Amino acid sequence: DQITAARGAGDLFLDDVYTHFLDINGQNVWARGLNMEHGVDFQNDECPRPNTINNGGNLWVLGLKTEQPRTKVRNVNRAKSEIYGYILANTGLNPLPMFENYDSSISISIVESVLRRAPFEIILQSFCGGVSSQGDRAMLGAQGSEGAAVPLMTASCSEK
Q: How many CB atoms sit inside 10 A of residue 113's CB?
């Protein structure tokens, strides 16, 4: 299951939607109740694609819910995303960042639950003008197999 918003398409409104992947190409997307699931086979897929690729669009999500160890949103090309959600990290391996930001802007407020003790180590990986930074569980005070509560984490790359 995949939702692809083609370049030049109008605004997209999603309400109580289940999908594996969402591709945004320059439009505005408002989602309420977005459930994004798709398992990852790390033995056969070294670089799995994220659930959402926001390519230069504006994404707003109220109620992101997911259970898989896949990157949730990758922002590219001056994209802007604002995410409020719940991450259930319930598999045995979460080597990918929860969110990625490439020369774009992102704001997240999430709660991560780790019923099977497999949290995401990196909450937000950001690359601005070739400079990398990350927000991880340790900076939030989460230890061991605890989940994380992220009241607000942002990354913004200014244009030059």
A: 16
In single-letter form, the type of residue at position 19 comes to T
Residue 79 pLDDT > 80: yes
Nearest to 101, CA basis, from 124, 122, 130, 121: 124
Backbone angles phi and psi of 93, in degrees to 5: -150, 125
Helix/strand/coil for 138: helix
Residue % of the chain over a pLDDT of 70: 88
Question: Is residue 88 within 8 Å of residue 70, measured between CB atoms?
Answer: no
Report residue 110 as tokens.
Answer: 């999430």
Say if residues 3 and 31 touch (Cβ distance below 8 Å): no
Q: In the β-sheet with 122-128, what is the strand arrangement from edge to edge?
A: 2-5, 21-25, 52-55, 73-76, 99-102, 122-128, 131-136
Instruction: Identify the DSSP state of 133.
Output: E
- pLDDT beyond 80 at 115: no
Taking CB atoms within 8 Å and a gap of at least 24, the contacts of 7-13 are none
* pTM of the predicted protein model: 0.89
DSSP-derived 3-state class of residue 121: coil
User: Quick one: pLDDT at residue 158?
Assistant: 67
Residue 47 has pLDDT above 50, yes or no: yes
Residues forming a β-bridge with 122:
136
Alpha carbon 134 to chain centroid distance?
Answer: 14
